Amino acid sequence: MAGTPPKGKTFDRSIVEGPISQAVWKIAWPTVLQNIIGGLQGVIDHAMVGRYVGFQGNAAVGVAFQIFLVVMVFIMSIFTGMGVLVARFTGAGDHAAVNRTVYQAFLATLALLYVVIAPIGWFLSPYLLTAVNASPEVVAEALPYLRTMFVGGAGMMMLFLLGGALRAAGDAKSGLRMGVTMTVLNVILNIIFIRGLGPIPAMGVMGAALGTVLAGAIVSVYGFIRLLSGGFVIHWDRGQMDWRWDWTIIRQLFRFGLPAGIQGIAMNIGGVLLLRYIGSLPNSAEAQAAYAVGYSELFSFITWTSVGLMGAAAAVAGQNLGAGKPERVELTVRTASRFGLGIAVFIGLLFLALPDVLLGLFGMDDPTVVSLGTELLRWLSVSGLFITTALTYTGGLQGTGDTKGPLYITLVSQLAVPIGFLTLLSLAGPLEAWNVWLAILCGHAMRATLTVRRFRRGAWRGIRIDGATAAA
Questions:
Q1: Which among 342, 307, 340, 284 is positioned nearest to 133, based on CA atoms?
Q2: Helix (H) or strand (E) holding 219
Q3: What's the rounded Cα separation, in Å, for the pair 355 and 373?
Q4: CA of 268: how far to CAs of 72, 251, 252, 262, in Å?
Q5: Which of 155, 223, 237, 311 has a CA 20 to 30 Å removed from the CA of 34?
Q6: Residues 97, 241: contact at Cβ < 8 Å?
Q7: In the structure, how many helices (H) and strands (E) does the chain have?
Q8: Angle at 21 between CA 19 and CA 22, to 5 degrees
Q9: Which residue range(s) make up the domain with 237?
Q10: Is the separation of the CB atoms in 419 and 270 below 8 Å?
Q11: Would you say residue 466 lies in a domain?
């Protein structure tokens, strides 16, 4: 039933009643800051691994995490479906439905992680690394990292679940606090495990995986304790909650989330195929290291910022549609996009002005790696403008329940365009690194164009969910 639960906090109604720019900023700044700080976690991993293991270690972390990212985005599809329902129920003021939705997402995530993902991932890890043309020295470092993430990544995923649920319900600051805590803890653990400390031996790449796994587990346990005790706007009251599976909600989680999961898998399969093409280049290990640092880490300051804005756009758009105010949804997306473009311009200028400095932070001193990385950053300084536009408008689509549109767009822009382009070029002769960098830019430009067109068509206005009490 709707209404305020006996414990916990109430919903923030300014998101559906106050100025849109303030509503977007209220959700965006903690989410963006959390993603930037979380991105620093990967930066620190690469910087420490690069200094203590070498560029082969950077390539190992980049390749292994790219593979694990395919799994992450599939699991997080449940969180996308959860976010659609939570935002819509929050906009309608239905506390009980919000609490029940988050609990069902928790059950579904646990089942997928431990019944499907962990055992299959452990077995397939060596074959997946071989599929991306990783060199033998990279495979030796990447295999234990990847297997550790498959088996122990549940804590990190549960933290993403909590952060996504709270953000969709209008509380982005709690997710920020937990994310910062995890990052700080991860840095401390990485210092201990990567380089060794006292009786603990230096573990190199494996140490980076252990630090991530343990930090996620510790902070997620704390988060669920607060969830049960009434410390969040979402509260699982042990005396009032129905702890059984709710198949109506589960179906809706997958109805809205599964297209986002397939989209994420397609997008990351595109990334894995790009790695395969990079692996076929001359000086492939150097090219993979440049890609791992330039795209997976430095460009992440644009992508993770834009993902944060995407989450803010989804939450604010979903709540306003749930409150029966579709006109505020359009303003929400335009506002989030302007924020993203400003950030992308600033970071892109840094890529152009200080490439040597940025690459040097990761111990990149090999002349070939630095040359390839500098070239990549030039392309990415332009590509960032397109990806931030695509992601903020994707947030508007997904937050209102249109998760199929971004899937179709991804199949075209992240698979057909870049991979098709590289396939044609490879038939004409040996590829060069700039061919891959250009393919990335073309894919991002296509994604932005198609996503903006899809949103402006306005089909999201008519999407309904089961059990919604909004007057949409």
A1: 284
A2: helix 205-229
A3: 8
A4: 10, 25, 24, 10
A5: 237
A6: no
A7: 18, 0
A8: 70
A9: 22-459
A10: yes
A11: no
Work out the pLDDT band at 7, boundaries 50, 70, 90.
low
Please choose, from the candidates 252, 247, 255, the residue with its C-alpha nearest in 3D space to the C-alpha of residue 403: 255
Q: What is the pTM of this model?
A: 0.79
Q: How far apart are CA 416 and CA 67, in angstroms?
A: 20
Which of 329, 454, 321 has the alpha carbon at shortest distance from 389?
Answer: 454
Alpha helices in 153-198 (DSSP H): 154-168, 173-195
The domain total for the chain is 1
In-domain check, residue 14: no
Q: Give the Cα separation of 248 and 454 in Å (integer).
A: 28
For residue range 387-431, list pLDDT tens digits in order: 999 999 999 999 999 999 999 999 999 899 999 999 999 888 888
Question: Could you report the per-residue pLDDT of 108-123, keeping only the tens digit for each?
Answer: 999 988 888 889 889 9
Please tell me the distance from the alpha carbon of residue 323 to that of residue 91, in angstroms, as a whole number. 5
Residue 2 lies in a domain: no
Question: Measured over all CA atoms, what is the biggest interatomic distance in the chain, rounded to whole angstroms?
Answer: 68
Let me know if residue 7 belongs to a domain: no
Q: Which residue, among 316, 309, 315, 310, has the nearest Cα to 331 in the 3D structure?
A: 316
Q: Output b/e per residue, 125-164; b: 16+ Cβ within 10 A.
A: beebbeebbbbeebbebbbbbbbbbbbbbbbbbbbbbbbb
Nearest-angstrom CA–CA distance, 336 and 315: 11
Other C-beta atoms lying within 10 Å of the C-beta of residue 88: 32
Token pair in block for residue 28: 């965006």
Q: Any residues with CB less than 8 A from the CB of 91 and at least 6 apart, and which?
A: 15, 16, 318, 319, 320, 321, 322, 323, 470
Residue 436 contacts by C-beta under 8 Å, 6 or more apart in sequence?
274, 277, 278, 281, 291, 422
